[in-house]
Structure formats: structure tokens, C-alpha cells
Amino acid sequence: MVPYFLSLSLLLISAFFNSADCGSIGVNYGRVANNLPPATKVVELLKSQGLHRVKVYDTDPAVLHALSGSGIKVTVDLPNEQLFAAAKSVSFAKTWVQRNVAAYYPHTEIEAIAVGNEVFVDPHNTTKFLVPAMKNIHEALAKLNLHSDIKVSSPIALSALQNSYPSSAGSFRPELVEPVFKPMLDFLRQTGSFLMVNAYPFFAYESNTDVISLDYALFRENPGVVDAGNGLRYFSLFDAQIDAVFAAMSALKYDDIRMVVTETGWPSKGDENENGASIQNAAAYNGNLIRRILTGGGTPLRPKADITVFLFALFNENNKFGPTSERNYGLFYPNEDKVYDVPFTVEGLKNYHDRPSPVAGNRPGAGDPANGGGGSVAKSTTGNTWCVASGEAGKEKLQAALDFACGDGAADCHPIQPGATCYNPNTMEAHASFAFNSYYQKNGRKMGTCYFGGAAYVVTQPPKYGNCEFPTGY
């Protein structure tokens, strides 16, 4: 075994907070409002928060000029209303790219073009124009020799899935497979692009609070849900949703295509019937999601996938239609004050702790982990909880977390040394579980002390590893 005692500073740099090996966080800059600050101030806000990726829903010149020279990578959008023209006319696509992309690049670091948005649910029946439009836009980029630097894709909603439970059974709607998904995924493979996906665990939770665990939806500690199809354990609804899409791609033999989550978020306010819409829950979802992405590890199905996620949205947008939640997804108010305080960088995460509300509406979970079902930490017969290692975390992550727990974490790791009472079974998972639990108990079982970069979770029954007894308090 590798020695257990590494310094905390090396651990944080090399394991938990190595951004080069992890995903990245961006933000959607929507502007359906009449009270937002000018684009120049928005760019300064993004830079001050350490946000280096932004996605916009058009190609507004004021915004693209403001982003020039900022070092912020940009995803622009060709609206659904222009899909027909882009699909039918190569010259339209070429002119659009020249005016809206080439005119600003490279000073404005446009990295991707979203051709349409959630086209399959567009009431104007633009689905048949999607792939031809993507191809024409890419051809226009190629003629300007920009196709290697700027990728072309299109965000899909989870409603494009026919099946999502269990995640391993994920599949696309059959009527979309031959005419759209196969040619689109072929295009993404050929051009080295990625699939854009919009995923909102909030929608599943708010309409199914009787069967969905809030902890599962908010990335909080929970016992997880085992996928009966592949045996993988899920600890968050987000991961289950994303893996359902990965499984759908895999079913069509497109395992090699990457994914970018172009929208996800949680509203800070909602109507009376919009269960779970609150500042506390929005802060927990986005804060824990950011930690989840920036500490790496992929998903249970794709553990090595480093996923870029764009939070929705930068501001509350007062002119959006629909329920109250639609106007309250913002991370910031229009005056640039934070709606709630979450970090957006690796550095900020070092001092970040999710602070759950004492009246959070957790319910025992059951049912569909991809569409919302999951377990919550149920009350044990003794009232105690323990922290154990996740076997799906992988040896490298477990070793790094074990080194921290037994080193600067000051866990009692003497019982797992050779010849000691808990040395057997001599496995990484058993030793890490004992160390994690010692750290968890010594820190009063506080929220966040059984996380270890996603390598651990809480259980409500005493762990069983040989004859080793796990303590419940110090």
C-alpha cells in the first residue's frame, strides 16, 4: 500500500483541487429583462467571480464587443427562428458566420456555436432543419478555417429521452433516432464536437416530492440508489440524469462523444405549488454542483469524464413568462448583488460548506433515480450515522482521501495498520471506510465531513468489514 501520510497541501493540489484534471464551470447570460447592467459591467462581474466561460442566446454586438479581450470563452447561439434559413441556404450560413462569429473572433474567444436550443420541443416544428443547419454552419466555419477552434452542436432537453430509468436503460425517443440523432451524433464525431444537454433536477423534484429525496436532488449526503441494470450506485439525481444520456448514446454505439451540460440550475423563488424553490435549496444545488464538477471524478458510468457545466443563469430575468421560478434562476440580482453566496472557483471551494436549512423538506426516496427518485438518509434504529467509502470512486481518489484523513485530517488510523484489529480485510475500501468514519465522527458528523471529493457517503447502519467495529463518537 502507498503510505497513508501525505501533507494536506499536496493532497489539495494533486487530488481534490486539480482543475487541470477536472471539469469547468460556466454561466448562461440570459437577457430577458429590462433592468440588467450594461454588458461592459457584466464582463467585469464575470471576471471578478472567476467565471471564464459564458453562454449567450444570440450574437448581440454589444455583448460580443464587451467580451473582446476579456479572456472569457464564449458560446453563441443561432436562434431556432433562423434554423430554416441556415438549413436551406449555404450562403445564409456563410453570411451569418461572417457577421456573427468571424467579425469578433479571435479577440472575442468564441469556442462554440449552439445551433438552436431544445429544438425537439420547439412548437414551430424545426427539428427537420437541425442537422442540415449544423452542417452548413460548420461548412461556413471550415471555409474561414475556423472549424478546428469553434465547435458546432445543439442543446437537447431531457425530454428527448424515451427511457431514463434506470440510467443504464437510457434511450432516445425512437422517432428521433434515425432522422436526427444518428446523423447528429455522426456529425459530432466527425467534427470532434460534443453533445449539449440541458438538465434540471429541480423539475423532477418539485413535482414528485413524495417520492424524491431532497438530499439526492441537492448533492447532499445520502445512501445512494443502485442501478439494477449495471450495479452502479448513484448519489445525485444530476449524475443519474447525465448517465441516462450517456447510456442512450452508448445504445447507438456513440460511446466516444463527450458531453457539455449547457444548462442546469435551481430557482431561488417560486409559486406556492413549486415545491423546493427557495434560496437555501438553490444555494445548496449550485454550490454542491460546483464542488462536484471542480473536484472531478466524472459520473458513475463515465468516471473519467470531465464535464463542463453552464449554470442557469447569471441574473434573475424579470421579463420571462411562466411561473415565478422562471424569473428567479439568477445567481445575481440586476444590481450585481449575489442572490446567495456560492463560490465559482477551486480556491473559493476550500472554505465553502453547504449549510442545509433545519426545516429542509427531505422525504424518504424511492423510484426513478434518473427522473428524480433516490434515497434519503433514513433514521437508524440507534440514531447514529457512519461514513463509508464509495467503491465506485476509484483507487486513486480513495487513496488521496485516505492519505488526508489519516494525515492532516487527524483520523485515528492505528486500527488499520498491519497487525491491528481492523487491518483485515486488507482492502482499500475497508481501510478508507474506517478512516473516513473516524474523521466524520471526530468532527461531530457535521455536514460536509463525509464528502472527501465524492469518495464517501453516509449510512445509517453499522458498517461490516470483517470483525472491525466502527466507532460512533469520540
TrEMBL record:
Transmembrane stretches, start-end: none
Domain X8, residue spans: 385-470
Catalysis: reaction(s): Hydrolysis of (1->3)-beta-D-glucosidic linkages in (1->3)-beta-D-glucans
UniProt main location, coarse: membrane
EC number: 3.2.1.39
Compartments where located: Cell membrane
Biased composition (Low complexity): 360-369
First-level EC class: hydrolase
Entry's Gene Ontology molecular function annotations: glucan endo-1,3-beta-D-glucosidase activity
Record has Hydrolase as a keyword: yes
UniProt xrefs under PANTHER family: GLUCAN ENDO-1,3-BETA-GLUCOSIDASE BG1-RELATED-RELATED (PTHR32227)
Name of the protein in its database record: glucan endo-1,3-beta-D-glucosidase
